[in-house]
């Protein structure tokens, strides 16, 4: 029985992979900086976790697993190297785990977690008992991994560090391509597009490349790929399309068409046109795995998305929502869904993530908040090791957004925002927190404050 040690075991992808190996019979240990719901779940399975990175944690390990965020000077990574313990990137272990399955991998700048969750749910509802690894907490999977006994495995494939090229997918899904994570690609967008082409061309003759061609770059790739493929989206040339779209508050009704012929009527239980598009890609992948269009449509009606993907914390009479959106395209799509759902004003608190992303996408961020009535910004949330950049701050971004006439407030202490809005929200208003950092804590704080005021009653 091999002993596998995970550095940073509490991350979404790392914790899911650790549990998968544990269930496969490996002895698993790990370390992280802070406890979380994911580390608590692993500990409940008997996995020992140390909450400090120190050399002795790797003692006796046969393998040590790290991810891209674990630097070379990490004491555990260095100790493994000094002791000649084999070091593996997370993606190498995932590739090994997927090798015994018909692998369905999902990559793209946006929509990976939602599309992965949808495909996994569709296969689960169809009785195919898939293994699913998701970059988020999914209620129907009771966490971020579902361990099944079927022949299918569904997993996110990360393009940000190029590790999606380590997998051999039977079905490869690409949701979209945008100029993100270019530091890994030497600043060359063309290199990122080329990597996506390589990723999609890895599918075998009986497999399928699934591409969202509302994205121009994927539309271009779809014309030149030499592997079995299907396209999806709202684009008139998409093979799998949505027609007759009706927005109905928290639901969206639409007709699924394949090559212009109706195959199913769907009601999607999460708002937003972007989620309609995500569902088309999921249905196309599930169909190739043997799930009927009608069965997939039934799954959408009861679909529950991963936490922090338009997660409704309070529904009435004020709606409090939290979302992981941290890229301008995601922000625009999420706020459009807010406008669809709200009966009153839309309030948003945005926490930018990473100095380099904020700098590179500055102009896009300035224009991304059109669907808000009142916008709050706070400081940039940066991972350990990223240094500030001159002139790049949440306050400066707020100033530039305000030049367009938008009502914008900068709050150094983001928890002050809950105090700002708790007494001004009215029935029908929607308040949302957005970002990949810890901004979700504000949404939870506000939901508690409103609950304490009796806001859950019919009136306010």
Automatic annotation (TrEMBL):
Nucleotide-binding found in the keyword field? yes
Q: Name one GO molecular function term.
A: ATP binding
Ligand binding (ATP): 108-114
PANTHER family membership: UDP-N-ACETYLMURAMATE--L-ALANINE LIGASE, UDP-N-ACETYLMURAMATE--L-ALANINE LIGASE-RELATED
From the UniProt record, list the reaction(s) this protein catalyses.
Answer: UDP-N-acetyl-alpha-D-muramate + L-alanine + ATP = UDP-N-acetyl-alpha-D-muramoyl-L-alanine + ADP + phosphate + H(+)
The family database entries (Gene3D superfamilies) matched by this protein are listed as:
Mur ligase, C-terminal domain (3.90.190.20), Mur-like, catalytic domain (3.40.1190.10), NAD(P)-binding Rossmann-like Domain (3.40.50.720)
Which keywords accompany this UniProt record?
A: ATP-binding, Cell cycle, Cell division, Cell shape, Cell wall biogenesis/degradation, Cytoplasm, Ligase, Nucleotide-binding, Peptidoglycan synthesis
Which part of the chain is the Mur ligase N-terminal catalytic domain?
3-100
Instruction: Tell me the NCBIfam families matching this sequence.
Output: murC
**Entry annotated with the keyword DNA repair:** no
Q: Give the GO biological process terms.
A: cell division; cell wall organization; peptidoglycan biosynthetic process; regulation of cell shape
What family does this chain come from, according to its entry?
Belongs to the MurCDEF family.
Q: Where in the cell is it found?
A: Cytoplasm
Hey, which pathway is this one from?
A: Cell wall biogenesis; peptidoglycan biosynthesis
InterPro entries documented for this protein = Mur-like_cat_sf, Mur_ligase_C, Mur_ligase_C_dom_sf, Mur_ligase_cen, Mur_ligase_N, MurCDEF_pg_biosynth, UDP-N-AcMur_Ala_ligase_MurC
Instruction: Please give the name of this protein.
Output: UDP-N-acetylmuramate--L-alanine ligase
